[in-house]
Design brief:
Length: 229
């Protein structure tokens, strides 16, 4: 049997630098500290309607990450991602269709997708995306979410559907994830976690990212050991 293909993107620790959570002027420094602490992917999230401001901030974050192997994705804004030469984009269900985004950004871009329902999970197999992120798992104050948290049981249910149709797609989980519950999220089957406040509002974002990365990898190691018994 051939081994599974190597994933294009590492979702063990996705850190979202969000202009709605900390001042925009601090996002580049936060991104660098998160990357230095062990983030495997950085996302820039900003609800500003000003494309010039978005592009300017994205470029600042990109310059901060220059020389780092950690990819930078732009949340929602495909044109901004294209204009600033970001590594890709993360798309919510209300954003541009992934097929159009792939056409705009090309085959090498990283495309992520938010998954909230079984219907979303079922559609993934036909979408040209490189990873998915399920949410919201727990309650969070970093983003307004009209839907109730799905909890670990809901996370597991959506993961089963994705694994059935797209077994090699990396899948993370988001919303309310902290050092206190990250291991449970990995235990439920997620390949990684996406966090906002747990890192960028921490007194030491670098140390917070390092702690979360350690927790994720330890939980993954336990799963491997249990599977080998």
């Amino acid at each position: 049997m051939s081994p599974p293909p190597i994933a294009k993107v590492d979702v063990r620790l996705i850190v979202i630098v969000d202009a709605g959570v900390v001042p925009r002027s601090r996002l580049a420094a936060m991104a660098l500290q998160a990357a230095e602490g062990g983030a495997t992917l950085i996302q820039y999230r900003d609800k500003s309607p000003d494309p010039v401001l978005l592009a300017s901030t994205a470029r600042e974050i990109g310059r901060a990450l220059a020389g780092s192997p950690v990819p930078l994705l732009i949340n929602d804004h495909v044109e901004v991602a294209s204009d600033v030469g970001a590594d890709g984009v993360h798309l919510g269900q209300e954003d541009m269709d992934p097929r159009r985004a792939r056409e705009r950004l090309g085959p090498d871009a990283i495309l992520g997708r938010t998954i909230k329902t079984i219907g979303h999970a079922s559609a993934l197999a036909g979408e040209p995306v490189d990873y998915a992120c399920i949410g919201g798992v727990f309650a969070t104050s970093s983003k307004v979410n009209p839907d109730p948290p799905i909890g670990l049981a809901g996370l597991s249910r959506l993961l089963r559907e994705i694994r059935r149709l797209a077994p090699h797609l990396p899948v993370g989980a988001i919303a309310g994830i902290t050092a206190a519950n990250a291991a449970e999220v990995i235990g439920a089957g997620a390949d990684g976690i996406a966090v906002v406040s747990a890192v960028i509002t921490a007194a030491d974002p670098r140390a917070a990212a390092r702690e979360l990365r350690t927790i994720v990898e330890a939980a993954q190691q336990r799963l491997c050991e249990e599977a080998g018994r």
